[in-house]
Amino acid sequence: MPIPPIRLLKYLLAGAATFAAVAPNTSLAQSTESVISQPNTAPASTFRTDRPSGSTVKPSDGVGVYDRMGAKLPDLPPEKDYKGPIDEAYGAYQRGYYLTAMDKALPRAQLGDPAAQTLIAEILSQGLGVKKDVKNAAFWYGKAAEGGDAAAMFKYALMLMEGEGVPRDKAKADEYMRKAAEAGNPSAEFNWAQIVVADNPGEKGLKLALPFYEKSAEQGIADSQYAVAQLYATLKDLPEEKKQLAREWMARAARAGFDTAQLDLGIWLVNGIGGPKDYVKGFEWLRLAANGGNVAAQNKLAHLYINAIGTPPNPIEAAKWYVLSRRAGLADPSLEDFYLGIEDDQQKAAIEAANKFRRR
């Protein structure tokens, strides 16, 4: 069963330009070499930040629905007949019959079936149809982990790290996280890469972690897609074909709704990082991240509206986004000067728009 990625470690790459926090530019003319930059208030963190709770509607650079109208799509390939064993316990679980799933899985779990043990642990850990029981969930996750179930090893590693249902044991947690990653669990691959980076500071750790980020990214973990994009853009001695894929990986993470990736992709498009400049698409990605509540994107969007980069100039919209980012604690002297220089009625309109803002 799929298990979402969990943020485990704080991370900061010292000395890498892409991760360096620099002050917002005071001038954003389109002729400048670097039109916008990273904000200067972001704390050290993993490759992931909290995602917006709003809509995941996002720009598309593919074929739109109107382009498809009237075009015959290829037929879907025929489904292959499944001839393998049917797991009635998991079938019941997937249909929401949790007590039935428990009844069917328990005899197998008691006989040492790791998959059944993982299912029992999942039901107990979430309290699905039964009273939530973290301690017994940890017991069954532990048994399944001993039996080599990758999902169980990942979940058990998290419980060992947090001391949830079991005594905290970092060494054992790291061992199971590594085993789960080596077994191909995508969330474990991401988290093991984070552990490798933390235990091996600098470029050495990043290079050791990169294969795990790559495997996890291929399986759709947006955190890892973002990490791969940044590492492809900054690590030395990588093959040129990988460096050329940095923007594509950033776009994948952005399309998945990862607001930090949307912010960075917008900056990359405006500044021409990892490919040609595209002010319009850069503006669209920054606006999407800003509407999702990303404060740094709100700050950058104000600059784009002031300087007509990817959008017509709009002092009220610029002031609105500045007011929102300032309220969130992101100071910017150049935007403050702009705001104080506009008309009183424009300031009033901007404040009213900011007051009406809701994350989308």
UniProtKB/TrEMBL annotation:
The keyword Signal applies. SUPFAM superfamilies: HCP-like. Residues 33-57 are annotated as: Disordered. Pfam families: Sel1. Keywords: Signal. Transmembrane segments: none annotated. It comes from the Bacteria. Residues 1-29 form the signal peptide. PANTHER family: ERAD-ASSOCIATED E3 UBIQUITIN-PROTEIN LIGASE COMPONENT HRD3, SEL-1-LIKE PROTEIN. This is TPR repeat.
